[in-house]
Amino acid sequence: MAARTISILKFVGTVSLGISTGISATVATIALPSLLALPTAVNARTTFTYLSSKAQYYTTYLRHITTFTLFSAYLMSPRRFRHPYLLYTSILAFVSGPGIDYAVSWRQGTNERRTALDLEAQGDDVNGEQVREAVERKKFNESVKTTLAGLAFAMSVVGLWGDGA
User: Fold this and answer.
1) What is the average pLDDT value for the chain, to the nearest integer?
2) I need a labelling partner for 87 at 20 to 30 A (CA). Which of 9, 28, 74, 79 fits?
3) In 3D, which of 121, 122, 132, 138 has the Cα closest to residue 36?
4) Could you tell me which of 111, 90, 96, 110 has the C-alpha nearest to residue 144?
5) Is there a contact between 70 and 13 (Cβ–Cβ < 8 Å)?
6) Quick one: three-class SS letters along the chain?
7) Do 149 and 96 contact (CB within 8 A), yes or no?
8) pLDDT at 123
9) What CA–CA distances, in Å, run from 6 to 17, 53, 69, 74, 90?
10) Transmembrane ranges (predicted)?
11) What are the tens digits of pLDDT across the range 21-58?
12) Backbone dihedral region for residue 78 (phi beyond 0: left; psi -120 to 50: alpha; all else: beta)
């Protein structure tokens, strides 16, 4: 019974990590670049804030599921079958969210949340260059998240394949 539970936890964690990686990749490569083609800065800003909040909500939710299930599978596994890939993958999945947000904002000397609030507070007087900068910053941020989460996903798939579970 415990082996089946561990296998289910590994499977759920890997699938949710794959979905989270796909969301980040889609946002970075398709959704955000298309915002720059919108006719007005107000439309781009409104769409950007909506897209950013929804993407962050879903990826955070999936990242928590991934971290919980893979770390639980690691803890529930018998000591002899405790593979470190479960621990590494759960840590990478957890860090691929707030850790990347913090590192990118520290590197660029900005606070992404503050910038988003500044864009919202401007009302209809939105500068197109500010929107472009916010979109480019978010695109870079999501690209880094995609890379890190993709690495964790690949590690999880190879680990599952190696387990035979």
Assistant:
1) 85
2) 28
3) 132
4) 96
5) yes
6) CHHHHHHHHHHHHHHHHHHHHHHHHHHHHHHHHHHCCCCCHHHHHHHHHHHHHHHHHHHHHHHHHHHHHHHHHHHHCCHHHCCHHHHHHHHHHHHCCHHHHHHHHHHHCCCHHHHHHHHHHCCCCCCHHHHHHHHHHHHHHHHHHHHHHHHHHHHHHHHHHHHCC
7) yes
8) 60
9) 16, 33, 9, 8, 14
10) 12-36, 85-104
11) 999 999 999 999 999 898 888 889 889 999 999 999 99
12) beta
Instruction: Pull the structure tokens for residue 142.
Output: 């999501």
This prediction's pTM: 0.82
What angle separates helix 128-163 from helix 41-76, to the nearest 10 degrees? 20
Tokens representing 163? Answer: 């387990």
All structural domains of the chain with their residue ranges = 2-163
Extract the tokens encoding 32.
């955000």
Token pair in block for residue 130: 């500010």
Residue 154: pLDDT band with limits 50, 70, 90: very high
pLDDT tens digits for range 108-128 = 666 555 555 555 555 667 788
